Amino acid sequence: ALYNILNKYEFLPRNEFLAQLGDTLCNDNSTFQILCTNALFAICGFNEKQMNSSLLPIIMGHTPSGASTKQIYHCAPGVKS
């Protein structure tokens, strides 16, 4: 498989810098929180009534959380169909 050839076993691994950046820019006191909200809306769809902005630091502090390349390989046929 490709992950054995490339010797890469993790897809989008957790990066402490990005976690800290998300936590800092998306917290309740940040003037940039609206940018974090809009980024999530762009990815997940717009629904302001169901958006709990107080959870943004938690969500963005864990994004990306990474996945095993075997998980991606396993889910690919479902995405393709």
From TrEMBL:
InterPro entries (UniProt xref):
AB_hydrolase_fold (IPR029058)
What protein name applies here? Uncharacterized protein
